[in-house]
Amino acid sequence: MENDSNNASISNSFYFLLNNLAGISFVSYFFWSGISLLIGAIVLNSSFSNYSPKINNQAVCSASSNVIGIVSLWVVEGLSFISMCIAYSVVESTCQTFDNLTFSIQAMGVIVKYLPTWIRLIHVFTFCQINTLFAQISLLPECNSSGLQTTLIITSVTWWFVAIFGLICKKRIAIPPHIFDPLRPKTSFMTEIHLVLKTMGP
């Protein structure tokens, strides 16, 4: 009986996820943002390896450490978005009254409510890294490659897609009461950062 209940819960969560991938929703925002960042990380890593000028099969472009940083953070950000997509689907499809919640469901709820805002801090940081990468590819002769310039364009488009998609979703998605994070009268530096980051997505 318990196995049947677990299977039904998994089926409901999977159906909820698939049913909300199209259009503007929390699921589509988390899923497509995560997929875009993971694909962007793969493209950036492989393109930099292929197009970076080499001497004795060693890349001479000094932007390699910056590229590794962007790729690593995008993987973390992308996997976090996918995790939030799954967590939101599980919580929304299995909890109608939010009574007698299990610890795992409560943990998923905390992830969905608080993690998105702070993951955007990584997104802002990678914007600074991309600008640094732009300067390196534009100014350093050892990084002068048309392939790297194309890679930089693709990387920038990926970043802006996630940012703009977040702004669109912020305007069009009504936040459910159980994950609504109201403004608090007490302000601090961290609160101000939190408010700015919240404007970047639902």
TrEMBL record:
Transmembrane domains' residue ranges: 20-44, 118-139, 151-169
Keywords, sorted A to Z: Membrane, Transmembrane, Transmembrane helix
Name used for this protein in its record: Uncharacterized protein
